[in-house]
Amino acid sequence: MSVFAGRVADTGVDPVPVMTEAVSRLSSLPKAELLWASPREVLNIAQAEACGCHIITATPDVLAKLPLFGKDLHQYSLETVKMFHDDARAAGFKIV
After folding, report:
1. Residue 55, Cβ neighbours under 10 Å: how many?
2. Sheet holding 2-3, edge to edge
3. What average pLDDT does range 12-33 have in this prediction?
4. Per-residue pLDDT tens digits for 51-66
5. DSSP character at residue 37
6. Coil, strand or helix: which one is 11?
7. Who's near 62: CB < 8 A, 6+ residues apart?
8. CB atoms within 10 A of CB 41
9. What is the pTM for the complete model shown?
């Protein structure tokens, strides 16, 4: 069974309860597997695993973010501020 969970989330609906219910319904079908389709972010990979999904599709841009999973938020914030600072300076803005 394939559920486009990312598309569900695009409508403002949390896909986790939908996917958890789908896993439950498939439990009586030992050969059936649930596919979480169309993830939008790394969090969706963790959500799919927590729900018990058997398969998740992922685009290269989502896979590229996997190293960020569990990253220290303070450090990540500092890196983000530095990136904006460097971009502003490269654009010719003065930071005072």
Report:
1. 11
2. 2-3, 35-36, 55-56
3. 96
4. 999 999 999 999 999 9
5. -
6. coil
7. 39, 40, 41, 42, 44, 45
8. 14
9. 0.80
Residue 82 has pLDDT above 90, yes or no: yes
DSSP 41-65: SHHHHHHHHHHT-SEE---HHHHHT
Are 9 and 36 a contacting pair, CB within 8 Å? no
87 residue type, one letter: D
pLDDT of residue 96 exceeding 80, the answer is no
Query: Quick one: CA dihedral 52, 31, 60, 11, positive or negative?
Result: negative
Tokens at 22, concatenated: 């789908």
Region of 13 on the Ramachandran plot (φ > 0 left; ψ -120 to 50 alpha; else beta): beta
Contact between 39 and 45 (Cβ < 8 Å): yes
Specify the pLDDT at position 59.
94
